[in-house]
Amino acid sequence: MPSAPAPIVVLGAGIIGLTTAVRLLESAPVRKGKIPVHVIADHLPNDPLDARYASTIAGAHHLSFADDSDTRQSKADRRSEPAFEVMYDEWRKEGEKTGLMLLKQTEFYVGTKEHLKIYEQHPDFIINSVGDMKLSFPADHSIAFTSLTMTPLTYLNRLLARISSLGGRIHRAHLPSLSHLSHTGITSLIGSAPSTVIVCTGLGSISLGGVEDTTVYPTRGQVVKVRAPWVRNGFTRQLGSLDGGEGGERTYVIPRPDGEVILGGTREEGDWYPYPREETSRDILRRALEICPDLQPAHQVAPALAVSGPPSPEKVDEMKTGEEGALDGMVVTHLVGFRPSRKDGVRLERGPEVKLETGERVKVVYNYGHGGAGWQCCWGYAESAVDLVLADLPAQAKL
Ligand SMILES: Cc1cc2nc3c(=O)[nH]c(=O)nc-3n(C[C@H](O)[C@H](O)[C@H](O)COP(=O)(O)OP(=O)(O)OC[C@H]3O[C@@H](n4cnc5c(N)ncnc54)[C@H](O)[C@@H]3O)c2cc1C
Q1: Protein residues whose CB sits closer than 6 Å to any atom of ligand 1
Q2: What's this model's pTM, rounded to 2 decimal places?
Q3: Shortest-distance atom of ligand 1 to CA 219
Q4: Closest ligand 1 atom, residue 367 Cα
Q5: What is the arithmetic mean of pLDDT over 116-123?
Q6: Which residues form the FAD dependent oxidoreductase domain (predicted)?
């Protein structure tokens, strides 16, 4: 009787690990070959929030952080095109219960009249005339287009359900080292030593034995979650460097289908401080209100009940400007997360086989280091990682 095929392990249950597991389970060779797929992770989506588990803290919006001249990241963004298509299709079929929201996204630029060319591929792209926009802050350029935002917990839970429905298994375990995959603590969960492991460990790649990637580092992000269901459009303002995400100051307003809105943000490289800083929160609230005055509840900016006629237009403008503390009553929570950044960008490759503690060898594919763009790139990278795994399967598994 032929022996059961050895399992494939996806290590990590962030947006990268879970989308990779779904793509793997959907692939014909895995389905036809009945190859067991197991996800193993320290953190799972419904755990209490932890800054080291970036996927649950993210905004998240589908926006590129790539400088047009940055071919490495631009390539990654081409890989992200399927992500937009996949998510747009999910939204179109099932609406906002997917955790996805289709919205008009407006971007403001200060200090440059250029935008990232990649945005021109989004639906409904236009260049705004900043002079006509009556902004309360200086801006040199503005564009708008249709984009998507994601509610991480909802979307990650849908991926968990999809994995289970496709026959995949999910386990909570810490793996100290890749060679540990044949340890009884792991094989008791997955049946036998795996043939292949796909490493989707984000920041965990720094300390995971056999990987120990010292070029991985945290880019700290602090955000404020507010409740403002009337805000249904997204805004960002980029000051300085257009490579965007990584340089200059970036302010963003990311509405979610459930009425919560994420206000951000910061990008603090190498900063491991896991708690919110009060002065940063105040600064975020001030900046967010500047680019999106509609955050302030209508009743706060409405003219007081008139006893002596309507207020002058100047008075109304003054009321709309927003004062410090204007959003305090809407704050739900303050969050901090560490984006898993990597000096040379995403590591997506096959590595040399690793010898397990019991002597067998395991094939290794890496898919980590997505920095600030894991959500928007997840499906494209998942597809590429799965291609690498499938190319290496024994020929009979592909029949
Ligand atoms: C404030 C903030 C805002 C962001 N906004 C956006 C946005 O708008 N758009 C966007 O695209 N991206 C955004 N990001 C970035 C995005 O969140 C990350 O790129 C993405 O979450 C990375 O996913 P991941 O699966 O690689 O890592 P993670 O989500 O960190 O998951 C890593 C997984 O690996 C597991 N793991 C690690 N080591 C081990 C081990 N040794 N053994 C077992 N398990 C292990 C962990 O437990 C976890 O399950 C944002 C991030 C932050 C912090």
Answers
A1: 11-17, 40-43, 53-55, 57-61, 174-175, 200-204, 208, 221, 223, 265, 337, 339-340, 368, 370-376
A2: 0.92
A3: 53
A4: 26
A5: 86
A6: 8-387
